[in-house]
Design a protein that fits this description.
Order of helices and strands of chain A: HHHHHH
Strand content of chain A: under 5%
Helix content of chain A: 55-70%
Oligomer: homodimer
Largest sheet of chain A: none
Radius of gyration of chain A: 14 Å
Chain lengths: 108, 108
Amino acid sequence: MRESKRKRLEAKGWKLGSAKDFLGLSAEEDAYIDLKLRLADAVRARRRRRHLTQVQLARMMRSSQSRVAKMEAGDPSVSLDLLIRSLLALGTSEQELAAIIRRSKPAA
Amino acid sequence: MRESKRKRLEAKGWKLGSAKDFLGLSAEEDAYIDLKLRLADAVRARRRRRHLTQVQLARMMRSSQSRVAKMEAGDPSVSLDLLIRSLLALGTSEQELAAIIRRSKPAA
DNA sequence: TGCTCTTATGTCGGATATGACATATAATTT
DNA sequence: AAATTATATGTCATATCCGACATAAGAGCA
């Protein structure tokens, strides 16, 4: 998973503490963002494994292709809700979901 | 955890497929709701274990007491995002988070 | 009984995430 | 290279979720 240093670089619109209180809960924020990016990667991986296009997945979950693209890109406008609902729509079991969440950020 | 048959009963405002397409993705919907309720219980358990009031937890995560109450009650107006951010604010590690998610609904 | 602390429930204006659409940029195929 | 298919990016109106507030309900104690 070479594209996971992406995480830092791709702080595209993440607004983080910057727009907020500038000091404080950056520890949880970090874990939260990291989790989202990990789920995003998992969605893409699972969708591809099932040979589905973004359009197909979008229809399965009554969303749209652009939403799926943003999801997989780790766009900050995408919620954890949508990510997890996507994984569930892809048939991910709770065990598998847990495994995705448990897995910490790959070694550098 | 006797209060988990609550799940079915407490379909208070869950609107489910009812307001939606009436047929279709109830499998994922079920998993989704079940997950939320499990996280809700986990928040309450962890908050109590740390001897925090809802007001205190609310302040820690810059939310409000009423939101925390709704979270713990499994109110449908609460998102997965908020539930997970709460758990992270309570110092839950990703390992622990995974354990909460993995754990399937208790036997009856 | 009142008093204090905690939690529950209802509501609301404002904030954010949503699907949809248009369109751009790959990536494949012919 | 042109056509086709897949994915990316930007924008927008509406739906949903948010914190905040008011207030009720419960628990424990003076």
